[in-house]
Amino acid sequence: MEKQEKNKLNFQNSHWLDIAETASVIGSIGGSVASIFIKEIFLASIPLSVCVALNLTNRKRLLSLTKAETQKAISELAQQNQDENTNLLQQLAKLKKSSNNQLAKQQTDLLQQINKLNTSFNEQTQELQHQEDKLATRLEYLSQIESASRGIQSSPNSAELYCQRGVNYQKMDQKERAIEDYTKVIELDPSSALAHHNRGLVNSELGNRKAAVEDLRKAAKFYFEQGDLNNYQVTRNMSQALHELNYTSGEPDSEKVFANSLFS
Hints:
This protein is mainly α.
């Protein structure tokens, strides 16, 4: 009975987006199963689209919530720092009115405590601010992904929208999704230098060196045809370096070193 009450309470506390996202996943699976029996692909694609949209919306909500909690933590930390400073300064004021025995030492100790407290506060504030900036950046990436996804629904043959979404997936380190979108761009626009370039970089990060070399060589070719000699030289050098890496006796970390050099 107690377990049932607890489950009921957890269900009531669940955010509607969490519930809707779970339901959409179940609906997507149900649609996929139904599509197998009646051979109608749209039954699987409809709930899957809903599932993706809810997933993006829910992730934005969770990141926004985390950002709000970070700002609250900064505010509470500032208030705590102010209260402790006030308390120490009050103690210092009382000492000034007392006898001079060991007054100088106590004043020095208190001032050192205040300085340490302020240093600790500044370090924690900087770290929290850094985390907040990272959250804001990820929220922007999610917003761009969501915008591109909406555009793709109305313009499913837009290579530009797939490329835009792929770039933001790549920035969020969602490599597999980025490759899927870049592959779709190349399917729609086989001479897209940027899609080959970016897919080559992601393949290199994933350790798919042969695929990376092929993508980077094609990117160099298309950049040259477009007259973009700067990117032509960059991708040409990358493909040559990665090609040579394939034939070295190689150390275990050689591939990792190369991948890091691409983004340093």
